[in-house]
Design a protein that fits this description.
Blueprint (H helix, E strand, L loop, with lengths): L13 E9 L3 E2 L4 E2 L8 E9 L2 E3 L8 E4 L4 E4 L1 E6 L7 H4 L6 H12 L4 H18 L1 E9 L8 H12 L5 E7 L10 H10 L3 E5 L7 H13 L4 E5 L9 H12 L5 E5 L8 H14 L2 E4 L1 H7 L16 H6 L4 E3 L16 H11 L6 H4 L5 H6 L8 E2 L6 E4 L4 H4 L8 E4 L2 E2 L2 H6 L2 H5 L1
Parallel strand pairs: 1-6, 2-16, 8-9, 9-10, 10-11, 11-12, 12-13, 13-14, 14-15
Antiparallel strand pairs: 1-4, 3-4, 4-5, 7-17, 17-18, 18-19
Helix pairs in contact: 3-4, 6-7, 7-8
């Protein structure tokens, strides 16, 4: 385990001297570009920390100097797509058959027996795990086949969000099949989501979506001032893309909220010409795409006794090249949809780096779990290292990308408002102390 940085215990100003920061995340502060095979995209800089915020070192020139050579500072990470309601249930449910529909059937049967306490206990463990890894915000889908306030998972996430306020920003998504838009209580659903400060979610199956239904869904969200989040094209069938249909609906209706399309596996099987046309519509609509590499690699193109060849990954390079915001999400953790993994978002990014070949610009792609993700979650200003921002940082005992992406959570130092939050402290302190 690495020796920790000698940070002051009291809330006094200090300067992190000669620390590395990804250039793509550094704002309004000078840096010197680093060179070397695994250092491209990093800069050396010094960061002042005073009154819980980042500042230029010359503003606090007499402050304590903390030698940070050999360390890297990242903003706290932003998780854009996860399912806390299903977290850590693999021992209870079993793994199913490794397919999407098999996981849905396995999980659905078990969820009927879970009460508020069952959900809250597992969600709390997951949030603690994410905190110790350096995550500062999470958007979590909660299955709400009926009205959200009648669902134990929805009630539980409200309780968990309150418990961790000041340490973790948690935004719930009320997830149900798109056809719930036809229900008489759809407007009540929207009102309950708005009351919780949540996001309106929908799952679009491989048979696609009726354009009128998409328009009605977006209209309901608009009436209540809600952003929307979709599970879409989570399959490899040769059918019209529902992601494109969604983009067309946004253009048709002029929907003004944020739109996130998760999975979009179908896009990855398009011919070059077909993909070019699809990406054009998606880019013009302004929607963002969430790539979920672990779950999609696990569930897609599965047949017993045969090596998978169609990997079900969203075409993120083509999307990003046309200005479509791309984010990476953990999705499922230790449940029937993905029996492995954890809530270390930096480790998830490392998985994305090799499975999607991101190593030509790791610093730029890291924005998919920092400031780009923060913007999509409505957390404007978060996810970057800039003067005036809260000193919410992840300090890593590494100075190149190989080291950064292989650090263990227990070796990282998490700062909230410039003060160190040891892992045991994050687990045990009352909320008000931890947020100070």
């Amino acid at each position: 385990m690495s020796a920790p940085l000698p940070l002051p215990q009291a809330p006094q100003p200090y300067i992190l001297h000669d620390i590395a920061v990804p250039q793509a995340l550094l704002r309004d502060l000078p840096g010197i570009a680093m060179t070397g095979g695994m250092e491209g995209g990093l800069v050396r800089t010094s960061l002042g920390v005073a009154a819980g915020r980042i500042c230029a070192p010359d503003e606090i020139a007499e402050a304590l100097q903390v030698p940070a050579g050999g360390w890297t500072a990242l903003p706290r990470l932003v998780e854009p797509h996860v399912h806390l309601d299903k977290s850590d249930t693999i021992a209870e449910t079993g793994a199913g058959d490794g397919t999407l529909m098999g996981a849905i059937g396995t999980m659905g049967a078990a969820m009927r027996d879970w009460d508020d306490a069952h959900y809250a206990a597992r969600m709390s463990r997951a949030v603690k795990e994410a905190l110790t890894a350096g995550v500062g915000a999470m958007r979590t889908h909660i299955d709400c086949m009926d009205l959200p306030e009648e669902q134990p998972g929805w009630r539980a996430i409200s309780e968990v969000a309150e418990t961790f306020a000041g340490r973790m920003q948690i935004t719930p998504v009320a997830l149900a099949a798109l056809d719930r838009t036809r229900a008489e209580n759809f407007d009540t659903r929207c009102a309950q989501v708005a009351r919780a400060g949540g996001v309106l979610g929908a799952f679009i199956g491989p048979d696609g979506a009726d354009p009128d239904l998409l328009d009605a869904f977006l209209a309901g969200a608009e009436r209540h001032g809600l952003d929307v989040d979709f599970h879409v094209d989570e399959h490899l069938r040769a059918v019209p893309s529902a992601t494109v249909a969604l983009a067309e609906a946004v253009l048709r209706t002029g929907f003004a909220g944020r739109v996130l399309a998760g999975h979009t596996c179908r896009l990855g099987l398009m011919s070059a010409d077909e993909l070019d046309r699809a990406v054009d519509v998606i880019a013009r609509s302004g929607i963002a795409v969430a790539s979920l590499p672990r779950t999609n690699l696990y569930l897609q193109d599965r047949q017993a006794g045969r090596t998978p060849t169609r990997r079900g990954m969203a075409p993120i390079h083509e999307l990003a090249a046309r200005g479509v915001p791309v984010v990476f999400g953990t999705d499922n953790v230790r449940d029937a949809f993905f029996p492995f993994g954890g809530y270390d978002l930096l480790n998830l990014f490392a998985d994305a780096a090799y499975s999607l070949h991101l190593d030509d610009d790791l610093g730029g792609w890291l924005r998919a779990v920092t400031d780009v993700a923060a913007d999509m979650l409505g957390l404007g200003g978060a996810g970057s290292v800039r003067a005036g921002a809260a000193a919410d940082l992840v300090l890593l005992p590494a100075r190149n990308w190989s080291g950064i992406l292989t650090t263990r959570p227990e070796d990282r130092t998490i700062l909230i408002g410039g003060r160190e939050s040891a892992q045991s402290t994050l687990r045990d302190l009352p909320r008000k102390e931890a947020a100070s």
